[in-house]
Amino acid sequence: MVPVLQVLKGYTSLTLRSDAIAGVTVGVVLIPQAMAYALLMGTPAIYGLYACLIPLILYTVFGTSRQLSIGPVAVTAILVMSGVSQLATPFTEEFTSLVLFSGLLIGLLQIVMSVLRMGFLVNLISQPVISGFISAAAIIIIVSQFEEALGFKIPDYNHTYQTFWYAVTHITEIHWVTFVMCSLSIITMILFKKWKRSFPGALFILVITTLITYFFGLDNQGVAVIKEVPKGLPSFIVPEMNYNTMIALIPSVLTVTFIGYVGSIGIAKSLEMKNRDHIVRPNQELFALGIAKVVGAFFQAIPTSGSYSRSAINDDAGGKTSMSTVIAAIMVVVSLLFFTSLFYYVPKAVLAAIILISVFGLINISEAKYLLTLRRRDFIVMIITFVGTLILGVENGIFIGVILSFIFLQYYSSRPHIAELVNIPETDYYRNINRFPDAIKSEKNLIIRFDDQLYFGNTSYFKDSVIHFISQRVPKPEFFILDATNMHDIDSTGIHVLEDIHKYLNDSKIQFIITGAIGPVRDFLKRSGFTDTLGTQHYFLNISDAVAFTEHKTNYKKQFEAATQFNKRRSFLD
Questions:
Q1: Any idea of the CA torsion for 305, 309, 311, 313, to the nearest 10 degrees?
Q2: How far apart are the C-alpha atoms of 558 and 147, rounded to whole Å?
Q3: Is the pLDDT of residue 463 over 90?
Q4: R_g of the chain, CA atoms, integer Å
Q5: CB of 408 closer than 8 Å to CB of 435
Q6: Of the residues 115, 164, 317, 520, which has the fewest C-beta atoms closer than 10 A?
Q7: What's the pLDDT tens digit per position in 89-98?
Q8: H/E/C letters for each residue in 228-239?
Q9: Rounded Cα–Cα distance for residues 90 and 28 (Å)
Q10: What's the pLDDT tens digit per position in 354-381?
Q11: What is the spatial distance between Cα 255 and Cα 261, in angstroms, rounded to a whole number?
């Protein structure tokens, strides 16, 4: 429950040095990003810095990844903004209060999922859905920064395309000083990143542009600045909570919970595979991310998630343990205590540039091309999720993608692969006749392999396929051999269909033989009584034995016993 104890065991001064260097490197990137993402979330910049204190410390204590850097991130910011903005106006006290309440609810849900060991639920969101959503979210974030990057007021619209169209049709209102500052900041940060990835280009640009704004009085010439930033550490508060608000926030809470966790665990797992010096435990990660949000909400921290860019920087800079995160948090503490007065002249255009640089890489065109060549249905899911998110909003886009994924899953599961098997000459192997048309086809036996579980969703297809295969054989076979090697489960509907097929085969004077049934399937066949109905002499361990029996009537008593061996129920639900 407290992985940091294992980290501290045998902690050396050399490890501390590596963690300190990595922590400082991450800290100088974290401070400007946290402020930028807080504004993206619709809250004052100071709340982004607050999110870099308690949550980081708690994740260090309870998290299992040694390189994952958590804090405010762009995708979480736009998700929270999208959900909460339906209830309150961004940058108001009510909005900020709802954001903190959202963080509390997200954290509580993640803790409950951890306790119930429900981390597997994130698998309900497929990779194409995630890719499509994140690509669309990146475009939504880019368009949302037009006002700060172009320097003129854009009305609040419900849809991204409306904001985009307004910006295009009013481009003559552009504030050139703001636009040039944002553009040059983007170009300079790109050049810094190409030169040296670990160089704190964002912080460097932020300092330079802040000084320029101060000395040349650009804030009086139309350049928007952050203005007053409260000094000191966050105080303890109790977020305003009520039942009706909680119900209204549920769609947003569920979306952030799943997307935030999927992103965080994905980053943590990739770093685990790269370094191989620790083990990431998904349910413990859920608890760590959840407790960081819950306690953080009481110290004015907006919702946090794992950041890919900062985690990569942490790893590249030599971070050995999660203590590097503590060093980054200490840097934020120092900034809050001594340097908040310097934030007054920070240009919002530069914070917009930091956001834009961060999200450009989230538009995953290469993934779309890859899916198009690999599996078109996954490509369709990704594109529909992408378009749905852009047009209908983030929660609806993800919902559409998940539903479409399950529709495809159910469709293909209801029509699984089924093949007639034939013998490859001079071997004991039996393979699909469509792949080996010159193989030996028996007149006496019809051998069918069904490549899925037999359940209510595909039993009709299975029954129709069996009847079709038999009707196509002239003369009719004497034996129907079902290769159940790939049939990993059967439900009660499946048993009824097997009984129907058995009756049909009996009426057609064809003997029914089952081969290769795995243990759980044998258990179910025995409990249902179908083993005895069919007769134990009709079960074999493999196709070769079954064919030898049909061809030579060989006595396979021991094979019968092994092929019908069964155990007790595995669980209460069996």
A1: -150
A2: 79
A3: yes
A4: 31
A5: no
A6: 115
A7: 999 999 999 9
A8: CCCCCCCCCCCC
A9: 27
A10: 889 888 888 889 989 999 999 899 999 9
A11: 10
> What is the four-CA torsion angle of 374, 377, 381, 386, rounded to 10 degrees?
50
Q: What does the H/E/C string look like for 446-510?
A: EEEEECCCECCCCHHHHHHHHHHHHHHCCCCCCEEEEECCCCCCECHHHHHHHHHHHHHHHHCCC
Instruction: Measure the CA angle with vertex 316, ends 315 and 320; round to 5°.
Output: 40
Contact 522, 540 (CB under 8 A): no
For residue 438, name the pLDDT band (cuts at 50, 70, 90): confident
Pick the more confident residue, 534 or 126.
Answer: 534
The band of 279, judged by pLDDT with boundaries at 50, 70 and 90, is: confident
Which positions ≥6 away from 299 have C-beta within 8 Å?
50, 53, 54, 234, 235, 236, 237
Structural tokens at position 157: 């619209």
pLDDT above 70: residue 570 = no
Residues 6+ apart with CB under 8 A from 45: 35, 36, 38, 39, 226, 229, 343, 346, 351
Return the higher-pLDDT residue of 355 and 561: 355
Using CA of residue 130, residue 136, residue 140, residue 142, what is the dihedral sign? positive
For residues 275 and 315, the answer to whether their CB atoms sit within 8 Å is: yes
* Contact assessment for residue 290 and residue 304, using Cβ atoms and an 8 Å cutoff: no
The answer on pLDDT for 572 being more than 70 is no
Per cent of the chain over pLDDT 90 is 56
**Nearest CA to 500 among 542, 477, 534?**
534
Write the CB contacts of 292 (distance below 8 Å, at least 6 apart in sequence). Answer: 54, 55, 56, 58, 59, 62, 70, 107, 304
Q: Looking at the chain, how many residues does it have?
A: 574
Q: Which two tokens stand for residue 372?
A: 């198009």
User: In the sheet where 418-423 sits, what is the strand order?
Assistant: 430-432, 418-423, 445-450, 479-483, 511-515, 539-540
Residue 343, Cα to own-chain centre: how many angstroms?
35
Residue type, 431: R
CA 563 to chain centre: 41
Whether the CB-CB separation of 167 and 175 falls below 8 Å is answered with no
Bond from prior residue into 475 cis (ω within 30 degrees of 0): yes
Q: What are 73's two structure tokens?
A: 């991130």
Please name the residues in contact with 522: beta carbons below 8 A apart, sequence gap of 6 or more: 531, 563, 564, 565, 566
Q: pLDDT-based confidence at 383, cuts 50/70/90?
A: very high
Q: Is 86 helix (H, G, I), strand (E, B) or coil?
A: coil
Kindly report, residue by residue over 2-30, the tens digit of the pLDDT. Answer: 888 888 887 888 888 988 988 888 888 88
Supply 487's token pair.
Answer: 């049939």
Strands 511-515 and 479-483: parallel
Q: Which amino acid is at 54?
A: I
What single-letter amino acid sits at 267? Answer: I
